[in-house]
Amino acid sequence: MATEIERKFLLVSDEWKAGVIQTYSLKDGLLARFGEGKVRIRHQEDWAFITVKGPRSGISRAEYEYKIPLEDAEELLSLCQMPHIEKIRHIVPYAGLNWAIDIHLGPLAGIEFAEVELAHPEQPITLPPWIGEEVTHDPRYRKATLLKHRAAILRAGS
C-alpha cells in the first residue's frame, strides 16, 4: 500500500529562503470527498496528477498518486469544487530531509506552512530554526477549515 507520512508546521521566520533548491507553482482542486478521504487533482507546472488519499491514522494515510495528461488535468480541475488551492512550493533541504515550504496564493493568500514527508511515523527529525508550532493534528489548519474560515471573513467584510 502506498502511504503518505507527513508532518506540518507553522513558520517563524523566512530564514528558509537561503536554502531553497527548487521552486514551482501548484494548483489543486478537490474532485471528490468520501468518508475521511478525498480525490485531488494537482497541476504542477509541466506535470499533472490525480491523487486519492484515505483517512488519517496519526501522521499517516493511504495515498495513491498517478500522473495524468495536462489537458485532462485542466478539464478535471473545471469539475472540482471551488475555490482551487494555488501555492508556490519551495523545497529546502535540512538535516537530511527535504522540507516543502508552501506559500498560498488566491483565497488562502498569506498562509504559509512547512511540511516534511517521512519514511516511517517514528522517524526522528531535526527541526530547522525557521520552524514553529507543529499543526499536523490541528483541524484548524486543514485546507477545508481554512477555506471555510476565509470565506466567512470575506462575507462579514462585505
Please give a structural write-up.
InterPro entries: CYTH-like_dom_sf, CYTH_domain, NeuTTM/CthTTM-like. This is CYTH domain-containing protein. Residues 2-148 form the CYTH domain. The chain is α+β, with helices and mostly antiparallel strands. An 8-stranded antiparallel β-barrel has the order 1-5-4-3-2-6-7-8. A hairpin with a 7-residue loop joins strand 7 (97-104) and strand 8 (112-117). The protein has 2 helices and 9 strands. It has a single domain (3-157), classed as Hypothetical Protein Pfu-838710-001 (Beta Barrel), CATH 2.40.320.10.
Helix-residue proportion: 10-25%
Overall body shape: globular
Radius of gyration: 16 Å
Strand content: over 45%
CATH architecture: Beta Barrel
- Give me the CATH superfamily: Hypothetical Protein Pfu-838710-001
Distance between the termini: 47 Å
Output the structural class: alpha+beta
Low-confidence stretches: 153-158
Q: Would you tell me which CATH topology applies?
A: Hypothetical Protein Pfu-838710-001
Mean pLDDT: 92
Count the helices. How many?
2
Strand order of the largest sheet: 1-5-4-3-2-6-7-8
* Total beta-strand segments: 9
- Sheet with most strands: 8 strands, antiparallel, barrel
The SSE string, one letter per element, is EEEEEHEEEEH
Protein name: CYTH domain-containing protein
Domain CYTH: 2-148
